[in-house]
UniProtKB/TrEMBL annotation:
Listed EC numbers: 6.1.1.15
Domain Aminoacyl-transfer RNA synthetases class-II family profile: 44-330
PANTHER family for this protein: MITOCHONDRIAL RIBOSOME PROTEIN L39/PROLYL-TRNA LIGASE FAMILY MEMBER (PTHR42753), PROLINE--TRNA LIGASE (PTHR42753:SF2)
Catalytic reaction equation(s): tRNA(Pro) + L-proline + ATP = L-prolyl-tRNA(Pro) + AMP + diphosphate
Protein's name in the database: proline--tRNA ligase
Organism: Parthenolecanium corni
């Protein structure tokens, strides 16, 4: 049993409109998502621009990681790991050192070798590929990692939205020509669309302003007033642009119609994709042997999703007017929270005896395995715990109260993301939860469970 009382989750829900004590810098309160993540015990500042990810926050990161791994494997990408500290000389060789060093954390080792705590790893992966000369037949190669990155931001702000250490999923692809690289770019782009679609939050993909070493680039955004990026959508043709990507701010680059001021909005960047052509390969010597047995430079793309940033962005975009967090089901810290009766109540003793078996029955649903937390702080009323559960945003909250002792026991289920409340008998509850969470598990396991539960139906409801 996963017991809420044992989780380090400092819960601090202050009266409305009061500045939480944890946030000393008033600018930080500009992000509601950040404020709520701190108040409800998901993250806590460690030092300026750095954050401790507490267990509830880490559950979200783990689920995002699983989701990303699954999608990356499906497109033929392979997970790897490279050191966070990279040689300064590698950055110089790639011609990126002077441009990027302003935001570097730099380190000297005992032999006075210069190292950089990397904000990105194009150099490292391109260099890695240069250490092995492979045939054109061996490509494409797609390597990715989910690892911390560092950037010594001048003005870190809004918690995980702009922190000095952050978690990224970064993928690097290597192809033998521009056509093949474009194809890979398309495949990864579709995978990114799938990932963002599976979270169910409206997102936007736009072409971004190109830097000199980039041949093509796109960014993914969530709409939000606190976002640093300025986008606009043309009312006439519905295409969207990054404000910095368009030279004439009054004319739509697509349909050439006049752009009204209403089309502008702010957004949070959640992903970025780049095609570099042979920029890195020619500088770092990553080559392949072509059909004519000649060395030729590889075409490289890189693809990033800000994992820790996405947690903050979700909290920002999904939280309610009442300061309640909401989570897309695939990444909710726990899909289900069970609230048993208050200590000393009439029903408490009897339900306490039933609870372990009931918990095991729910746990056996494959999509809910290790994903149910029980709010065992029975010194509090059901009402108080229900309020906290709603603030935390578990997609499903199950209250086991007096109705569970009726001749036909009934259970109260709150479906937060659909704003629904149900009172149902046990078998209907199990069926409901299986259907509601089925996207989270393998279908074969689910069917097996349902068949099993069906054969046991008479005994489970009696
Ligand atoms: Zn247009």
């Amino acid at each position: 049993m996963i017991r809420l009382s044992k989780i380090f989750r400092p819960f601090n829900a202050p009266p409305r409109n009061k500045l939480p004590k944890l946030l000393k810098n008033p600018n930080e309160t500009a992000s509601k998502g950040y404020k709520l993540l701190c108040q409800y015990g998901f993250i806590r500042q460690s030092s300026h621009g750095f954050y401790n990810i507490l267990p509830m926050g880490h559950r979200i990161i783990e689920k995002l990681t699983k989701l990303l791994d699954h999608k990356m494997i499906s497109i033929g990408a392979h997970k790897s790991y490279v050191p966070l500290l990279t040689k300064q000389s590698l950055w110089e060789k790639a011609g990126m050192y002077d441009e990027a060093r302003d935001e570097f954390f730099e380190v000297d080792n005992r032999n006075n070798h210069k190292l950089v705590l990397s904000p990105t790893h194009e150099q490292t992966f391109s260099h890695l590929l240069s250490t092995e000369l492979m045939s054109y037949r061996d490509f494409p190669k797609l390597l990715y990692q989910i690892a911390p990155k560092f950037r010594d931001e001048h003005r870190p702000k809004l918690g995980l939205l702009r922190s000095k250490e952050f978690l990224m999923k970064d993928l690097y692809s290597f192809d033998i020509g521009p056509k093949e690289a474009d194809q890979t770019y398309q495949i990864v782009t579709e995978a990114y669309n799938d990932i963002f679609n599976s979270l169910g939050i409206k997102f936007m993909r736009v072409e971004s302003a190109k830097e000199s070493h980039v041949s093509m680039a796109h960014e993914y955004f969530y709409f939000s007033d606190i976002g640093d990026d300025r986008l606009y959508t043309c009312m006439a043709c519905d295409s969207s642009y990054h404000a910095s990507a368009v030279a004439d701010r009054h004319t739509c680059p697509n349909c050439l119609k006049y752009l009204s001021e209403d089309g502008y909005f702010n957004a949070i960047e959640i992903g970025h994709t780049f095609s570099f052509g042979t920029y890195y390969s020619t500088r770092l010597g990553s080559c392949f042997v072509d059909k004519n047995c000649q060395r030729s430079p590889l075409h490289m793309c890189s693809f990033g999703i800000g994992v820790s940033r996405l947690v903050s962005a979700c909290a920002e975009v999904c939280s309610t007017e009442e300061d309640e967090l909401r989570w897309p089901l695939p990444i909710a810290p726990y899909s289900l929270c069970i609230i048993p009766p208050k200590l000393g109540s009439v029903e408490e003793k009897e339900i306490k005896l039933l609870l372990p078996d009931f918990y095991r029955l729910l746990e056996a649903i494959p999509s809910l395995s290790d994903d149910i937390v029980i709010d065992d702080r029975t010194e509090y009323t059901i009402g108080k715990r229900l309020v906290e559960a709603k603030l935390t945003g578990y997609p499903y909250i199950l209250v086991i109260g007096k109705d569970a002792l009726k001749s036909t026991p009934l259970y109260e289920l709150f479906d937060l993301n659909h704003e629904k409340r149900y009172l149902m008998p046990k078998f209907s509850l199990l069926q409901f939860l299986i259907r509601a969470t089925e996207m989270l598990s393998e279908s074969s396991l689910k069917i097996a469970y349902l068949q099993n539960a069906t054969t046991q139906q008479p005994s489970t409801d009696s």
